[in-house]
Design goal:
Distance between the termini: 163 Å
Order of helices and strands: HHEEEEEEHEEEEEH
CATH class of the domain at 106-279: Mainly Beta
Radius of gyration: 58 Å
CATH architecture of the domain at 106-279: Beta Barrel
Oligomer: single chain
Helix content: 10-25%
Largest sheet: 8 strands, antiparallel, barrel
Number of strands: 11
């Protein structure tokens, strides 16, 4: 007879039930290590890895590197150049040298079109009249030692111009310049002294008609510069007062007030532009 129950199974030929296999007790989950234990375990793990790498060189994995780019090579090149380049000077950087100043020594010719050699005097004791010579020529030879220099100026007496035709004709007559017999007025230097920077005193013989007397003329060098045409120019200015009677020009007319029509004191006025003579290499060798 087969009998089935809810909790046991009985088989034929056995009255005792077969015991069921007991279930294994469930294992309790391991407790999480404390932070202190984690730190100790991590240190031990690192020590073990270090020991393995020191005993087995092949076990050490190579460090992966990125491929070198063109930009990296440029930076390395610039770094190498900066390391090998000479250090920059630490002192003050000097500016470009200033251009050399024009040399005053040499031969200079008077430029008539940019030169005025004139005079001024009193008229009727109350006003001043001015005149100039329109035809002038001259030159100067300036040496390294200024004392060895020389200068000459020549004026055509008949070119006198006071902006009054009648007065100019009177000045050309025997009462004054007597141009029929003495057509030129000249000044020839006998000494040139440099009295200060750009300041000179030129002493020479002034000849008017048949009278020659020594006169000293102070001159100021205004500057030396090149014009747009490549000429090197020098500018000079000066004046000197003289008594015209010392050269035999004594004509005059008395005034009712007791004065005279034409002043006896004459101021000579020099406003000169000179051009330096330039020589070719062949001409310089001949000299």
């Amino acid at each position: 007879m087969l009998k089935k129950t809810r909790h046991a199974v009985f088989t034929m030929g056995s009255d005792a039930p077969t015991p069921a296999t007991p279930a294994k007790p469930e294992t309790a989950p391991a407790s999480a290590p404390s932070p202190k234990e984690e730190a100790v375990n991590e240190d031990k793990s690192k020590e073990a890895e270090t020991a393995d790498m020191s005993t087995d060189p092949e076990a050490k994995e190579p460090v992966a590197t990125e491929p070198e780019t063109a930009e990296d090579k440029t930076v390395e090149s610039e770094t190498a150049e900066s390391e090998t380049a000479e250090p920059a000077p630490t002192g003050p950087v000097s500016a470009d040298p200033a251009p050399a100043e024009p040399v005053i020594t040499g031969h200079w010719d008077l430029d008539p079109s940019h030169t005025r050699i004139g005079f001024s005097t009193r008229h009727a004791m109350i006003s001043r009249i001015r005149g100039a010579f329109n035809e002038v020529s001259g030159w100067a030879d300036i040496a390294e030692d200024v004392a060895d220099s020389s200068a000459t100026v020549i004026m055509q007496a008949g070119s006198v111009d006071t902006r009054n035709t009648g007065r100019d004709q009177h000045l050309c007559s025997e009462d004054f310049f007597n141009i029929g017999e003495f057509p030129e007025i000249s000044f020839v230097s006998s000494a040139i002294d440099e009295v200060d920077e750009n300041s000179y005193v030129v002493t020479g013989d002034l000849t008017i008609k048949d009278v020659t007397k020594s006169v000293s003329v102070p001159l100021e060098l205004l500057g030396i510069d090149s014009d747009p045409f490549g000429n090197l120019r020098a500018g000079l200015e000066g004046s000197r007062r003289i008594d015209r009677r010392d050269w035999g020009m004594e004509w005059n007319t008395p005034l009712d007030s007791g004065g005279v029509l034409v002043g006896e004191k004459i101021t000579l006025e020099f406003e000169m532009s000179l051009i330096k003579e330039t020589k070719t290499a062949a001409e310089a060798e001949e000299d």
